[in-house]
Amino acid sequence: MEPITVSRKVTHRRGKKTNKRAGRVSMLLGACAMTLGLTVAAPSAGAQKLEQGIRSEHVVQLQEQLSDLGYFDAGVTGYYGSITQNAVREFQQAQGLSADGVVGPVTLNRLNQKVKAEGETLRQLAKLIHGEARGESFEGQVAVGAVVLNRVQSGEFPSSISEVIFQKGQFTAVDDGQFNLKPTATSFKAARQALNGADPTHGALFYYNPKIATSEWSKSRPTLLTIGQHDFTK
C-alpha cells in the first residue's frame, strides 16, 4: 500500500478561513488513514537508514528488491544480516556507490530507480493473518504474524517468511483455501507490526484453538498465554 501523504500547504492569499478548512481536512484524512491501518506521510524505506541488525518491513522490501536484481539469493526474512549486507555491498559496487553495506537514501533511491518494490511478502503475511485470525482482536492478529517471524528465526523451521507460511500441514488457512481471501487493512497493519518486531506471544512457535483442536500433540505443549480463541505454545 502506498502511504497517504497529507498536504498542509495553503497559499496566504486565501486567508485564515482557508487555513482552518485545510487543517480540518488534513486532520480528517489523517484520522481515516489511521483507522485503516495506513501510514500518514510516513517516510518510505528510501528515507530510512538500514543496516545490519535491523528487523523491519523495510528490510523485507530491500531484500525483495535485491532479489529481483539478482544480488540476494536467500529467502526473505525481514532481518538485515550478513547475507543482506553482502548483497547491498555488491549492488553498491555495481552502481559506483560507496560500498559500506549500509542502505541510506542514496542507495535506496538507486534501488527504487532500478526496480519497483512489489510488497509480495507483506501481502502473503497479511493473507495468512486474515485467513487464520480475522475474527480475533488486533493483538491476536499480530500474534499470528509474530509466530511466523519467530519460526523464521528459530532454526527449527524454514528460513524465510514465504517458506514458513507455505510449509505443508502447518497452517489451516493455507490448506483449506482461506489464505486466498482478500485481506483487510487491519490484516496488513497487523502484518507490519509483526514485521517490525511486535510479539505479544513472547516467542511462541505454535498456536491452536483448544475448543476445536484434535491434535493431542498440540494440547500437550505448555501454554505460554491465551489471546482470544488461541493458545500459544513453544
General description of the model:
The chain has 234 residues and is mainly alpha-helical. The chain is built from ten helices and three strands, in the order αααααααααβαββ. It has helices at residues 15-36, 57-68, 82-94, 105-114, 120-133, 138-154, 161-166, 172-176, 185-195, 216-220, and strands spanning 206-208, 223-227, 230-233. It has a three-stranded antiparallel sheet with strand order 1-3-2, covered by helices on one side. Strand 2 and strand 3 (230-233) form a beta hairpin. Helix 5 packs across helix 6 and helix 6 packs across helix 9 (185-195). The chain is elongated, with a radius of gyration of 20 Å. It starts with 14 loop residues before the first helix and ends with a strand. Mean pLDDT is 84; it is low at 1-47. InterPro entries: Cell_wall_hydrolase_SleB (IPR011105), Peptidoglycan-bd-like (IPR002477), PGBD-like_sf (IPR036365), PGBDSf (IPR036366), SleB_dom1 (IPR042047).
Order of helices and strands: HHHHHHHHHEHEE
The fraction of residues in strands falls at: 5-15%
Helical coverage, percent range:
40-55%
Mean pLDDT: 84
Q: Enumerate the spans where pLDDT stays under 50 for 5 or more consecutive residues.
A: 1-47
Given the helix and strand composition, which structural class is it? mainly alpha
Secondary structure tally, helices: 10
What is the molecular shape?
elongated
Report Rg: 20 Å
Strand order of the largest sheet: 1-3-2
Mind describing the biggest β-sheet?
3 strands, antiparallel
Distance between the termini: 33 Å
How many E-type strands? 3
Protein name: Cell wall hydrolase
Pfam family, one: PG_binding_1
GO molecular function, one term: hydrolase activity
Keywords: Hydrolase
